[in-house]
Amino acid sequence: MSCHVGDDSVTSADWASLEQTLGGTVRRTGAVAAGVYLLSPGEPVLGLTALCGLPTRTVAPWWRVAVSAAGPLSEAVREDRLVWVGRQEDMARLYPNAAAGLPYQFAMAFAPLHGTRRWGALALMWPQSHPPSLTRRERGHILSTAHRITRILDRSPTAWSIPAEPRTAPLPGYGTDPARTGLAADDLLQRLPVGALGFDLQGRITYLNDAAARLLGRSADSLLGTLPWQAVPWLDAPVHEDHYRAAVFGREPVGYTAPGPSDRWFDIRLYPGDSGITAFLSPSLRGPSADGPPPHVTAVPAPSPQTPGTGRIHQLLHLAAALSQTVTVADVVDTVADQILPAFGAQGMVVSAADAGRLKIIGHRGYDPRNVARLDGLPLDTDVTPVGRVLRSGVPAFYADPAEMTATHPRAPALSGKQAWAFLPLMVSERRVGCCILSYDRPHPFGAGDRAVLVSLAGLIAQAMDRALLYDAKHDLAHGLQQALLPAALPPVPRLDVAARYLPASRGVDIGGDFYDLIRLGDTAAAAVIGDVQGHNIKAAALMGQVRTAVRATAGAAPGDVLARTNRVLMDLETDLFVSCLYVHIDLAEGRLRLAGAGHPPPLLYTPGPAPRAVALPVEPGPLLGIHACTEADYPLTTASFPPGALLALYTDGLVETPGTDITDSIAALARQLAPNAVLPLDDLADSLLHHTSLRHTRTDDTALLLLRGR
Questions:
Q1: Secondary structure of 500-549 as H, E, C letters
Q2: Which of 104-113, 151-160, 234-243 has the lowest mean pLDDT?
Q3: Domain segments of the chain: what residues?
Q4: Do 342 and 64 contact (CB within 8 A), yes or no?
Q5: Which of 108, 267, 322, 631: CA 20 to 30 A from 593?
């Protein structure tokens, strides 16, 4: 397992410290499990790096979690705070999407790991017997542990990375060697008439008596150290998988009756503990008989072992919830890569979309980019790979090894470099959306259960992809329109330095109508304008262009007249959208500003001198543009001095609006950020102001910024 980046590597001492800290935390807090999630350096994903107290395969669907996911782990990292979920009911209420994939009773805490950088989060789990709230002492233990883990990570800041499979940290005081079992205890268990088995935290069999070996139909030597559902085929059934998960997560005894081979029935009791699980297996007295009714079963009777297990169903619900949150094509690709790949143990993925008769690769993981380039743009009916046949027929194809693939597509294995493949057609109402390919680095058999779940999953991916392709097309159209309507470059004005920035709202919000402009009025004068059209759609972007044109047509007149005439233009357009706007006439010869505003946030003015400061200019606002009741609206004039070295900052409300914060306080905070940095080059200053704002809140509105400095 590789755990390094660059020239540094994680030392064994650092790993030992991390594992010891995890195990010690489980002991001190009374938790049953702990894990460390690290942020991936190249993508917004949290990867499970170390785990203590749970089998790694049991939590496979959650090895990788998107930072943007609607769940407690991601929230702890995004908001840099401790998040506690005390009951399954709380999980369902606060994080319904996460609860869909975790239908078990337990409590969890997530603490951010924030040192020299934002590392990720510490996760802790308690059984359902834990009180619904954390005690002050428990909270202190959790935060102090997070601090200790952060210090360990900070010692090698460039060395840590996310392994392909989480590293297991042992619990203190427990071993997995069956030879440590005392002879007296062994004699006691051998005398029992029922089968007795011991499992370690990874689910491997560490002990079994002779009765258990007889009931399972295998020798003790062939079972020790194995996973029971792999060593004994009839144990690989949904009823066993679901009850095992319930015992692992809930840490409560579980009992049930289930069928075995040759029409035999078994009573099974699971007793979970901190070091593993003890199981008792005995023939059921309620088994079927020729003259009696069918036995009562405490769980839903298990279908064929080849059908998808209950755990797979919960997993499918979890993945469906994640796909329902996607908006863009990139969201869909990231969700498939971050959650579906680890859930099915795959190492590679290619997602293609049907585009003008060809397959355009829109996302991939685990492939050499050169191989991807060779496969990009294949015709929809290609026979080079199985994709063409899969899309024509709408029937998925599974290849367990290269020999199976070579039989029908001889060139495909060499192009891919993989050893097993699942080709899933993405179809919506018999329309070909694209294809999703999951691949494996080693041969991989696909059971009927896996195939059924993957086919169902392909339908969910197809719906999400179809929706995302439509969204991206509309977004690109609106964004292109808006960019075309914004100035490609600002005109040079003597004795005036300028810089401008435009940022769209955070991902998932349509395009908006924020705009800015600079109009040269001569060698010593210029007009600056900034505004915000109501709405986030193509209509808003189009109206923005019309407002900008109307302002340009009257620029040079008195500021109040410019806004009044623009308002009348909007009246003639009979639009139902409102526009906020700020118009500034800059007289560089006199060193003076004349301003008029239409419901827009006040500009910031920095003036140099012995006591330099940045303040919000008290512009008396006029009504918004486009209000029908204000056809003859008056826009009062405001004046201010603008000496050489002074700086004027015009912005839209996306830069200062923060949910739950008074906008006046946000404007004052922006002024405090501007004042000490006003001497920076304007491009650097613009980036600094936008970065400072993005650290405080996620943008939910477009942002335009125009900086002007006199010389």
A1: EEEECCCCCCCCCEEEEEEEECCCCEEEEEEEEECCCCHHHHHHHHHHHH
A2: 234-243
A3: 4-168, 178-283, 328-478, 486-710
A4: yes
A5: 631
